[in-house]
What we know:
It contains 15 helices and ten strands. The chain is 41% helix and 15% strand.
Amino acid sequence: MSSPGILQRYSHLLNLPAHTQPVTLLEGGTPLIPLPRLTADLGGGFELLAKYEGLNPSGSFKDRGMTAAISEAVGRGARAVICASTGNTAASAAAYAARAGLRAIVLIPAGKVAAGKLAGALAYGAHVVQIAGSFDDALGLVVQISEKHPIALVNSLNPFRLEGQKTAAFEICDELQRAPDWLCLPVGNAGNITAYWMGFRQYDQSQKTGLPRLLGVQAAGAAPLVHGSPVEQPETVATAIRIGKPARGEQALQAADESGGSIIAVSDEEILAMQRRLAAEGVWVEPASAAGAAGLKAEIEAGKLNPKGLRIVAVCTGHGLKDPGIITGQFAPPAAIPPDLQALEEIILAP
C-alpha cells in the first residue's frame, strides 16, 4: 500500500495554517534499510540503517517540505512559486507546482547542477533560470523578488518546509518505536538537520521516544559550519550540499549542540567511497546523500564515536539517478561483443 502522504498521516502534528489545501504526490513512508555488511566493516556490534529518502516522488527528501509549502501557498491563493536550488529543491518545487497547477520558477547556479536534477525541473515544466553566481547569490535574488512581487518563496527559509521535513523523524520513531541513538545526515543549507531535530523533540515531548545525538556532515570544500565562517566559493562533487552560507546555519549548530552531537566535514574522496560502498549493498544514492554515512565511518575510525550496542540511522537524502554522471564518468564504457555464446563465455568466464 502506498503512503497516504505526510499531510494526511501527520496532520495533527503539523503547524500549518487553516487555509492550507493539501497538494500531495503521496510522499513519505520511505524505508529504513539495514546495512549489515557495512556494519560489519565498521566493527560490528551495533545496528546501522539507511533512511532512504531517494524513494520520495521526485527522488529526494525535499518532497516532504515541498508538499507543505505548496499546500500552504495554494491555500492563500498563490499562482506562482520560486526557489533557488542546487538541484533537488528545483525538481521538487517543479513537481508539486505542476501537481497544483502553479507556475514554478527556479534559479540555479550556472553549470553547477547535476543533469538528473535539472532534467527533473524541466520535465515538470518549471521556468529555469541560470545565474552567473553561487547558490547563495541565487537565494538572495529569490528572497528579494518574493518580497517585491506576489510569488511564493519555497526555499527552506519558508517555515512550512520544515514542518513537512520533520515528519521523517516521526517515521523513524514510529518504525523503531523510539528514536535512534545517533542520526547521521548531510548538511547543506541546513534545513533538514533543523527539521529532524524539531521532529524528534516534538515526538519525545508527546510520546517519550527519547532523543538521538545528531552527526551533521558537510563536504570539506563547502563546510562553513565547521570553519565558522561563510565559504565564498564552495566546491565539492556533492552538488546538493555545495552551499557556502547555509540559511539555517545557526539553527543547525544549535540542534547539533543540544543533541550532544556535532557537525564535521569529510573529503570528496570519502563521500565517493561511501557512495560506492552503499551501492555495493543495493542502496544507490547521489554523492551528497552518502555524506552522513561517510562521516559516521570517519568518526568511528578516528575513535571519536563508539557504536557498540547502538542503533544508528544514516539519512540518504537523494536517489543515485539524481547525479548519474558521477558514476558513469568513473568507468570505461561496457565491453561490446557480437551476439555469440562463445564471445560471452570468453568475457565473463575468463580467469
